[in-house]
Amino acid sequence: TQAKAEPSRETLWMIAVRDHRDKAAFSALFDHFAPRLKGFVMRNGTSAAQAEEIVQDVMLTLWRKAHMFDPHRAQVSAWVYQIVRNRQIDVARKENRPMPEALKEEPEAEPDASQIVSIEQETGQLRDALQRLRPEQREVIEKAYLGELTHQEISTQTGLPLGTIKSRIRLGLQRLRHELKDLSE
Amino acid sequence: MTSISHHIPEPMLAAYAAGTLPHAFSVVVATHISMCSECRAVVEAHEAVGGIVLDDMLRADVSSSMKSNVLAMLDDPFQDTPVYQRRGPYPGPVMEALKGQEPRWKKLGMGVRQDILSEDKHGSVRLLYIPPGQAVPDHGHNGLELTLVLQGSFSDETGQFGVGDVEVADETLEHTPIAGMEDVCICLAATDARLRFNAFVPRLLQPIFRI
Ligand SMILES: [Zn+2]
Ligand SMILES: [Zn+2]
């Protein structure tokens, strides 16, 4: 991947939705994510009709919880992934998945473009690493994140090189140190 | 921040991110992450991988009516899911499991109390209340047990556990945790019930003690 000076389109659309309730940006996000989400949900045998219901809920959550999106720690796809897995679990268990306390940007915090871009570069490198895997290895990864492996099964598979992305996300969390301090009091 | 030295093992954090960790353990993981930015970063890294899998997923056409439905609903009023705030030693996910109420303690003997937050066939999660200096009766484990300290501390054969620390115990550990003298020790403990019935805890007593 080449170094980009600008955040990705998806990130810019998501920031426009979050900060300006921009419906055109939402529409672009819908066109990007809805077909992928439907494919994702149908992978475990969910019917097309039920998959569309889940996709609809996920896209509405993206709109309604946009204030929770923090581009300094996550790409839009990572955030949408978390929302769709929550929704699938809630549908299966009829009960909410336990979620950690949310950390929020300070309202006056300026977006830090270099931090956002470096998260995207790390994610790009991770994607390249995934694409270099043999098809059967790649399938194990897909199965794990589609929610088809237990934690014992995950522990026996070879680990992904997550070191650098973890430290980037940790940097993003450090920006929130004031909130973290509040939490520990 | 208090310094946390005992964390959640990474495969569990990965399974939590992937949504495959049993509910009882997920309550402990969500609570620990509320106190530990190190493990939060690990979970978010795994979510990034999930995001890549999602982004590279084979696309399925969506009906055009669905998009117009969603766009038409954007301005609708909606009921937000309640957000539970930390209260005293109990972080948000514990308050959620308590449904916003104070714990309803049940006596277990020797001043030790518990409140079972939830249990199903995959496991149970409970709060434990241990008076300062009190030992929890020596016990083994039939499955996996995660114990997260919310207040005070305890120590056992394997080390010392303060606020935010998690002890991971399995069949190989036989231990006698003792609460620190400084305060009442309050822990959040989850166990995996699946293996329990193979072991020597008499089946007849289990429904009575629910342990
Ligand atoms: Zn941790
Ligand atoms: Zn134990």
Quick summary:
Chain B: Residues 101-191 form the ChrR-like cupin domain. The complex is a heterodimer of chains A (185) and B (211). With 185 residues, chain A is mostly helical.
Give the secondary structure arrangement, pairings included.
The complex is a heterodimer of chains A (185) and B (211).
Chain A: H1 9-20, H2 23-42, H3 48-64, H4 76-93, H5 113-131, H6 135-146, H7 151-156, H8 163-174, H9 177-184
Helix pairs in contact in A: 1-2, 2-3, 3-4, 5-8
Chain B: H1 10-18, H2 23-35, H3 37-55, H4 64-73, H5 92-97, E1 106-109, E2 112-120, E3 123-130, E4 145-151, E5 154-156, E6 159-161, E7 166-169, E8 178-179, E9 185-191, H6 206-209
Antiparallel strand pairs in B: 1-2, 2-3, 3-9, 4-7, 4-9, 5-6, 5-8
The complex binds zinc ion (2 copies).
Question: Please, could you describe this protein's structure?
Answer:
The complex is a heterodimer of chains A (185) and B (211). Helix content of chain A is 67%, strand content 0%. Chain A has 9 helices and no strands. Chain A is globular. The N and C termini of chain A lie far apart (42 Å). With 211 residues, chain B is an alpha+beta fold. Chain B has a single domain (1-211), classed as Jelly Rolls. Helices cover 29% and strands 22% of the residues of chain B. Chain B is built from 6 helices and 9 strands. In chain B, the strands form 2 sheets. A 6-stranded antiparallel sheet of chain B has the order 1-2-3-9-4-7, covered by helices on one side. The longest helix of chain B is centred in the N-terminal third of the chain and has 19 residues, at 37-55. The interface between A and B is large, with 80 and 65 residues. The complex binds zinc ion (2 copies). Residues 139, 141, 145, 169, 175 of chain B line the site of one zinc ion.
